[in-house]
Amino acid sequence: MGKLAKWLGLQNRSEHAPTGVTPPSRLASGPITARETATVPSAYRAIQILTTSASQLSLDAFRNSEKIIDRPPAIVRRPSLDIPRSEWLEQATMSLAATGNLYLAPNRDSEGQAIDLPILNPHHVAVTQNSETGAISYHYQGRKYTRGQILHCALMRLPGQLTGVGPIQAARNSLTFARDLNKHISGWFDTTGQPAGILSSDQSLSDNQARAYRNTWNGLDADGNKIDRTDNPSGIKVLGRGLEYKPILLNPKDALWLEAQTWTALEIARLFGVPSSLMLVAPEGSSRTYSNVNQEWLAFTRFTLMGYLRPIEEALTELAPRGVTIRFNLEALLRADTMSRYQSYQLATQAGWLNSDEIRTIEGLPNDN
Questions:
Q1: Where do runs of H (alpha helix) occur along the chain?
Q2: Which domain of life, per UniProt (predicted)?
């Protein structure tokens, strides 16, 4: 990851394996893809939080700082003609989170106004630049688009780069470890060769005797075939010749790599900028109160979610009629509960900068008049 990893503060970290537990092999695994990231529970949860937060927001249009109520632009009411606004916002946010890029191919009416904003699959878009003219082109499903035909939003685009860098691309090593850890845990007793127990004897046994006792214990005959259990349906074992069976009992905390899973979940939470309280995981020794959780959510809205919402706002504003600005309504996210909202409304009305009609509009209620 080079300089980008250094700038973002992303470093590799080694975990010490618990006694008797073999760490997952990194030799056979390749770099994680965006699709595979969704199979990592913590990463799926982080992306879901981002997309759900964006999809529940409403869009407002402003002209000269005045909110347009009567007839807002069509792309504010419904950015896509094929899917609801909430799903469009979900897909737009997911495109940015998964790849760091969002590509829109606007369809316009006879007057040149954007009326439909299809979202292109970011994995199928190739961006090129003419070395002589500097013109940027977009290639999608065998068709070439000019810069004027595609609206491109990007996260963390380095100077001189054509595309952005999303969380998955920025910390592919950490996510690859999380994927491999999940696979390792799920296949622990089947693929690691860890025996379920040890069959021992206080007497000397030949190789053939040891093999025969092992097969009998595993329900196999001398030829290695399954023994008919009709007469012994419960699988009762009979020990003789000083034989003793000792199961190998692993601490569930070690067998499931719970500490490593917790660390991985926290690492992914930091990567996506999602509060650990929303990820349902907490650092060891931390305590939560209503106040600090509320501050976490506020910081999430300002410093994480807005990183995804602002490019979408700017793209919609660019496509809106001249003089119109599009903004997300963040009121519901910035105030966590009903009591907080009502208290803020009371302060606003007492200060004289909000009236009852404006408050009812914010709450999605009809005005008194």
A1: 2-8, 34-37, 41-55, 74-77, 85-99, 167-170, 172-186, 188-191, 207-217, 252-255, 258-272, 290-300, 306-319, 331-334, 338-351, 356-362
A2: Bacteria
In the DSSP assignment, the letter for residue 119 is: B
Contact at 8 Å (CB) between 55 and 93? yes
More confident position, 236 or 286:
236
> Which of 76, 79, 80 shows the shortest CA–CA distance to 58?
76
Task: Report pLDDT for 333.
Answer: 73
End-to-end CA distance of the chain: 59
Evaluate if pTM is beyond 0.85. no
Cβ-contact 37, 46 below 8 angstroms: no
Distance CA 274, CA 165 (A): 18
- At 341, the pLDDT band (50, 70, 90 cuts) reads confident
Pairing of strands 101-104, 324-329: unpaired
Torsion of CA 23, 26, 27, 31, to 10 degrees: 160
19 token code pair: 């006694």
Measured in whole angstroms, how far is the alpha carbon of residue 75 from the centre of its chain? 27
pLDDT tens per residue, range 137-185: 999 999 999 999 999 999 989 898 999 988 887 766 666 655 665 665 5
Instruction: Identify the burial level of 135 via C-beta atoms within 10 angstroms of its C-beta, where 0-12 means exposed, 13-18 middle and 19 or more buried.
Output: exposed
Nearest residue to 58 via CA among 300, 360, 326, 346: 326
